[in-house]
Amino acid sequence: MKNSLLILFILLIASHEINAQPGKPTRERIESMKIGFLTERLNLNPEEAKVFWPVYNQFQNELNDVRKNRKENMRDAAENFDDMSDSDAEKFVDEELVFRQKELDIQKKYHPQLKKVLPAKKVARLYRAEEDFKRKLLEMIRERRDGMQQGPPMRKKP
Domain extents for the chain? Predict the structure, then answer.
C-alpha cells in the first residue's frame, strides 16, 4: 500500500510538471517522468528502490557522457556533411561504430550490477520499460509539435 501511494505521488508530480509548464519538456521534467515511469513498471519496493537507483543513476551518467560526445560529433557532421571528403565520412562512420561499442560496453558492465540489486525478471522489465518510455516521450513530443503547428483555433468575427 505504501509503495502504491509513493508511485501514485511520483506519477502525479510528473504529470503535473509536464502539463503545468508549456513548451519543450525540460531535462528535469523528463527525468522525473522517467523515474515515475520506471518505478511503476518495475514495481519497486522501497528496499529495491534504495539499492537500484544509485546503480541505475551511475549507469545513466556513464551513458550520458558517451552520448554527449556523440552528439557533438553528429552536430559537426551534420553541419559539414555536404563538404565531407570520403575519408571524413569514413572517419565519421568509424566514430559512430566506436560510440555504439562504448554504449554496449557500458550496458554489459552494468548488467551484472543491476542483477545484483534486482531479480533478473525486473532487470529484463527495466530494459523493456526504458524502450517504452522513449516511445512514450517521442509520442508526447510529436503530439505537442503537431498541436503547435495547427496553431490556436480561429475565432469567427461577429
Answer: 1-43+130-149, 46-118
- Exposed/middle/buried for residue 13 (C-beta within 10 Å: 0-12, 13-18, 19+): middle
Task: Copy the grid coordinates of residue 23.
Answer: 513548451
C-alpha separations of 158 from 1, 151, 152, 153, 155 in Å: 56, 21, 18, 16, 9
Query: Which residue, among 39, 54, 67, 62, has the nearest Cα to 109 in the 3D structure?
Result: 62
Amino acid at the residue 7: I
Q: Give the pLDDT of residue 5.
A: 39
Which grid cell is 150?
Answer: 495547427
- Indicate the pTM of the whole model: 0.71
3-state secondary structure of 157: coil
